[in-house]
């Protein structure tokens, strides 16, 4: 879009153009009086913005490429340095570009600070990255704040189920008869179900395990809990006892599935006075670490994209697995658990092991872009020397 503007008897042409996906503005010709005194190549050096001030220009300063405040978390790489003269003033300028080289130009050196931009997750309300080998937290955001975790709760349910199965095929093949009309109704609702139950029909422990793990079936998780402990209430007590044994200081359970009591009430499965399971991001990571360490089979089970269980398709919603939208070959993600309710937001526990590195466990809670932010977090922490084997 081009416009003419009259200023003090002068006609000044202003034009808006697009450069590297951002709008660039032409600077009036009477302001373009920058002259190059000297230019030299420098060793590629990382910088980030020092404050909200500053902008990137072309060398003659006739075109603004972008304001620095539009890139709050960008690392800029400087490869050239120039001394520019503007009127009677001289200044040192750096030629910089972002990592994709989609934005590049010259910026006054004092607007930048040496070093890579601090890593942030914009959308997740809480997050953590843990070295699975050492149990050390290597990055965190509000990691000790207990939050609703939706179906991520099933990590504890799967752990207690595997503990009772104890690797015995006789336990995997044990049949559980569905006598609860509430569970059947739950299984048939679009919001809470998925893996359909038939009243008085029997399912094996393995079938319910697959449905709860892959399809995140809430009714299957509750049925497993009843098998493990004898009743829903006793199982939830078992969940809290296990959390206490692991010394999880920010974990409390009222549901085997991760559904909130406000939803469970209609099916006859409300338990306790609190509305939701609440666990901190760090404690979720510790739960996942216990699950993978004690029962490594979950890494094989968790990377199954989909399978038919009792004639029904169970689909794994982990979109970081091979063949999915957010897959990145180098991260080798092979688990672990998704979760969502309107209260908890999108939650995801991811794990993978880059070649030559320790396995990482990541947790994002109440996110909007749970897979893209998990991928960014994994790539970030794999840059730490402490993650190397």
Fold and architecture overview:
Helices cover 24% and strands 33% of the residues. The model is unreliable at 1-31 (pLDDT under 50). The chain has two domains: 33-114, SH3 type barrels; 126-387, DD-peptidase/beta-lactamase superfamily (Beta-lactamase), CATH 3.40.710. Strand 18 and strand 19 (312-315) form a beta hairpin. By secondary structure, the chain is an alpha+beta fold. The termini are far apart. The protein has a five-stranded antiparallel beta sheet with strand order 1-2-3-6-5, with no helix packed on it. Strands 9-8-7-4-10 form a five-stranded antiparallel beta sheet, with no helix packed on it. It has a five-stranded antiparallel beta sheet with strand order 12-11-22-21-20, sandwiched between helices. The longest helix has 14 residues, at 232-245. It is built from ten helices and 22 strands. The chain has helices at 154-165, 169-172, 181-188, 205-213, 218-229, 232-245, 261-264, 281-294, 297-301, 370-381, and strands at 2-7, 10-19, 22-26, 34-49, 55-57, 63-67, 76-86, 89-97, 104-108, 112-114, 126-131, 137-141, 147-148, 175-177, 202-204, 251-252, 278-279, 306-309, 312-315, 333-341, 345-352, 360-367.
């Amino acid at each position: 879009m081009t416009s003419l503007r009259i200023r003090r008897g002068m006609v000044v042409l202003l034009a808006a153009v697009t450069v590297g996906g951002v709008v660039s503005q032409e600077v009036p010709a009477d302001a373009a009086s920058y002259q190059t005194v000297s230019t030299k190549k420098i060793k590629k050096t990382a910088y980030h913005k020092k404050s909200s001030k500053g902008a990137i220009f072309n060398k003659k300063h006739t075109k603004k490429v972008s304001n620095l405040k539009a890139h709050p978390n960008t690392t800029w790489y400087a490869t050239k340095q120039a001394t520019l003269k503007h009127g009677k003033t001289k200044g040192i300028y750096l030629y910089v570009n972002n990592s994709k080289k989609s934005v590049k130009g010259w910026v006054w050196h004092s607007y930048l600070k040496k070093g890579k931009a601090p890593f942030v997750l914009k959308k997740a309300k809480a997050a953590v990255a843990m070295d699975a080998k050492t149990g050390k937290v290597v990055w965190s955001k509000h990691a000790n704040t207990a939050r609703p975790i939706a179906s991520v709760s099933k990590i504890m349910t799967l752990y207690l189920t595997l503990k009772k199965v104890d690797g015995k095929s006789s336990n995997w093949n044990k049949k559980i008869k569905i006598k609860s009309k509430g569970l059947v109704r739950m299984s048939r609702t679009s919001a809470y179900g998925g893996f359909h139950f038939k009243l008085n029909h029997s399912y094996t422990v393995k079938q319910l395990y697959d449905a709860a793990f892959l399809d995140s079936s809430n009714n299957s998780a509750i049925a497993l809990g009843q098998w493990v402990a004898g009743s829903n209430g006793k199982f939830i007590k078992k969940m809290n006892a296990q959390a206490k044994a692991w010394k999880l200081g920010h974990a409390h359970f009222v549901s085997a599935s991760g559904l909130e009591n406000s939803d469970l009430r209609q099916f006859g499965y409300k338990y306790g006075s609190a509305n939701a399971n609440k666990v901190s991001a760090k404690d979720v990571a510790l739960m996942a670490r216990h699950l993978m360490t004690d029962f490594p089979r979950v890494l094989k089970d968790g990377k199954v994209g989909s399978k038919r269980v009792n004639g029904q398709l169970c689909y794994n919603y982990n979109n970081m697995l091979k063949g999915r939208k957010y897959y990145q070959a180098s991260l080798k993600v092979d688990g672990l658990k998704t979760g969502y309710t309107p209260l908890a937001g999108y939650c995801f526990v991811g794990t993978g092991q880059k070649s030559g590195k320790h396995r990482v466990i990541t947790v994002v809670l109440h996110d909007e872009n749970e897979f893209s932010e998990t991928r960014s977090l994994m790539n970030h922490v794999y840059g730490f020397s402490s993650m190397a084997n």
